[in-house]
Specification:
The protein is of the alpha/beta class and 184 residues long. Helix content is 46%, strand content 17%.
Length: 184
Amino acid sequence: MKLNIGFFLGSKFGKGTNFSYLTKKVAKWVNKNSHNIIFGGTETGIMKDLVVNLDKNESTITAIITKGLIKDHNELNYFDELIIVEDLRKRTEQFLLRSDVFLALPGGIGTLFEIIEIFNKRVLGETSKKILLINDFDYWGPLKNLLEHMIKEEFLEEKIMLKNIEFINFCEIDERLKDVKNSS
């Protein structure tokens, strides 16, 4: 079944070629499954690696970008639909409206903000949409360690973490999306 997947990922390439390679593998998987993607709109870094490797005959690509970012990224080419919003709050609203599930690849502060925002909305019951962090190369290991530290220090309940955010390897993606496919 075709899913609308909200992607959170970096506007930079990161150190080395591992993250670019992983992103291209994810793009092949998206093509194979004909999923649609929703992404942050900038066509730089591994975000560009994702969108340039998508088959536009099989997938619809939706870019959601804030007015503040569009000024710096006025040559956007790899999308079917461009949505320009006022601010990050409106951007998150559009992501939630248009996505069945969220996948996070490596990224910086913006990616981390998006992950935490969806995680918090799940905890508060504002969304039930899954968020999966693709943790190949242990990129998200420090975030997982921080959440486990919060559990240890009794600022977060383990069942809340386990219920609301998943750290997976790319090879687990189909298995982890089975229930999303069945409920879409």
